[in-house]
Design a protein that fits this description.
The protein has 227 residues and is an alpha+beta fold. The chain has one domain: Gcn5-related N-acetyltransferase (GNAT) (Aminopeptidase, 3-Layer(aba) Sandwich). It contains eight helices and eight strands; from the N terminus they run βαααββαααβαβαβββ. Strands 1, 2, 3, 4, 5, 6, 7 and 8 form an eight-stranded mixed sheet that branches. β2 and β3 form a beta hairpin. α1 crosses α3 and α4 packs across α6. The chain is globular, with a radius of gyration of 17 Å. 43% of the residues are buried.
């Protein structure tokens, strides 16, 4: 783990199965059900996605925990490959249950539009995408009360270290175009915008690994997710 993964007040470590409920609760603090598909579907579905991301062979999750109390104050999930379709298929039983419990979801056009796009459509200009072997950031979360302490930076540095060790050539993250704070944060880390991967409401940032492709510092903390 990167040396920056530890501070006097918090530490980045692997996510345990026993952490998943706390990760779900942290996720709920960071995202609104008005815009975010898993939140539209409820906590049961959010928990199912993190269980899949943290236990699957092609993905992993990290958490930042308060050293004094053990409380989770940050988390991220990373996949070695595009994750939306396989995650949706794996979580389909929970999806069906969520819709059955909330039949009004059938009327949410935004839900179906984003699910269809994520599960079935590649990004625009896929033929011009960066080289294969890019890991993909699924989520980054920082507790609102803990932002501005370098947690976002440490999670991304640790993710870059882990993904490089897993054989990936780089890492990418999708950010809603309207999320200017997260866009600035990834730019400050040294990640480059990739227009070829852009979709209707999402822009991608890419960091390639190698001796001349280090990830720089970032001064603030934000959450990001593409779904």
């Amino acid at each position: 783990m990167n040396a920056d993964a530890h501070s006097p007040t918090w530490t980045v470590r692997d996510c345990l199965v026993s952490d998943l409920t706390a990760v779900r609760d942290l996720h709920s603090l960071c995202f609104s059900p008005d815009e975010h598909v898993p939140m539209m579907l409820g906590g049961r579905y959010v928990l199912a996605t993190y269980r899949w991301l943290s236990t699957g062979p092609r993905s992993y999750c990290l958490v930042a925990a308060d050293d004094a109390t053990g409380t989770l104050v940050g988390a991220c999930s990373i996949s070695d490959q595009p994750y939306a379709r396989p995650m949706f298929i794996a979580c389909l039983p929970t999806f069906i249950m969520s819709v059955a419990l909330r039949p009004n979801l059938l009327l949410r056009s935004k839900l179906w539009r984003r699910l269809f796009r994520s599960s079935h459509h590649p990004p625009n200009g896929e033929r011009d995408s960066p080289p294969d072997g890019l890991a993909e950031v699924a989520t980054v979360l920082v507790h609102p009360a803990w932002r501005g302490r370098g947690i976002f930076e440490a999670l991304m540095r640790s993710s870059a270290d882990r993904s490089a060790a897993r054989g990936n050539k780089g890492i990418k993250a999708g950010v809603y175009k309207s999320n200017t704070a997260s866009r600035r944060a990834f730019s400050k880390l040294g990640w480059k915008e990739a227009p070829a991967l852009e979709t209707g409401d999402t822009v991608f940032y890419v960091a390639e690994f190698g001796p001349n492709a280090g990830i720089g510092a970032v001064s603030s903390d934000h959450e990001t997710h593409r779904s």
